[in-house]
Design brief:
Helices cover 73% and strands 0% of the residues. The radius of gyration is 18 Å and the shape is globular. The protein is mainly alpha-helical. It has one domain. Helix 2 runs parallel beside helix 5 and helix 4 runs parallel beside helix 8. It is built from nine helices and no strands. Keywords: Membrane, Transmembrane, Transmembrane helix. This is CAAX prenyl protease 2/Lysostaphin resistance protein A-like domain-containing protein. It comes from Isoptericola halotolerans.
Length: 258
């Protein structure tokens, strides 16, 4: 079991069920706003109106859940900072993902994007990076570490992040939602690598927000075409580094008892 560093100093001791409760509460508010506003996921980036109702509004509602919950629990510091880092090599895939997103912005097609749409895209992308990384990576990692080793923490938090996208089946993209879930597991692994290789959740937030900003703003799907390859790389690198970390920790424990 991996115990959270400094857990005794937290207002509320981390528990798996508390992390899941925050995650579910966030989704409940987010999807309730989507349903009230009549979401069609495939058209989120279509206009000023769709961006406001289907991007900024639900994320703003979800933000309130995160701010209230984590402030009440006192989990901000462990959610945003990582004291036990993975090697810097873990940042390679996140860097490649960032380059792809930037290239998509350079070579994308934005003739339909108005100034107001750009503003809404920036606001929404900042919110999605902050919200989804904190609720599905930061605070879930804190909660899951109260019971599971790091391999389980990565797998469970990333699985929940990917399943966050499954309701899109009902919101306009049908069976493509299942493919999205699979790809998001891999991209979630890339965000996990960004978090653990840098020691801060901020790079994962920035990468997540940049990726969504790039894909929602351009009408050409260049970045989306690379997503499956980034996803595979993210999973492979995460597993390799976590296995090495587990072996290194086991060796250190063995040396300690000798």
């Amino acid at each position: 079991m991996h115990t959270t560093s400094g857990a005794t100093a937290l207002r509320v001791r981390p528990r798996v069920w508390l992390g899941l409760a925050v995650f579910i509460a966030y989704l409940a508010v987010f999807y309730a706003i989507w349903m009230v506003n009549g979401i069609d996921y495939a058209r989120v980036g279509e206009s000023e109106d769709t961006l406001l109702k289907w991007y900024v509004a639900p994320l703003s509602g979800g933000l309130v859940v995160i701010l209230v919950s984590l402030s009440a629990f006192g989990w901000w510091r462990p959610s945003l900072r990582e004291t036990k880092r993975l090697p810097r090599s873990g940042a390679v895939v996140p860097v490649i993902m960032a380059v792809v997103a930037i290239l998509n912005l350079v070579f994308g097609e934005f003739s339909r994007v108005t100034m107001t749409m750009w503003i809404l895209l920036v606001i929404g992308s900042i919110l999605v990076g902050f919200n989804e990384e904190v609720v599905a990576r930061g605070q879930l990692v804190v909660a899951l570490r109260s019971r599971f080793g790091e391999m389980g923490v990565w797998f469970l938090s990333t699985t929940l992040f990917s399943l966050l996208h499954l309701p899109n089946f009902f919101f306009g993209i049908g069976s493509l939602a299942f493919l999205q879930v699979v790809i998001q597991f891999g991209l979630g692994s890339v965000y996990y690598l960004a978090f653990r290789s840098t020691g801060s959740l901020v790079p994962a937030m920035l990468l997540h927000g940049l990726w969504d900003f790039s894909t929602f703003s351009s009408s050409l799907p260049w970045a989306g075409l690379t997503a499956p390859f980034l996803a595979i790389a993210g999973v492979v690198v995460a597993v390799v580094l976590l296995v090495k970390e587990r072996r290194r920790d086991a060796d250190a424990r063995l040396q300690a008892v000798r």
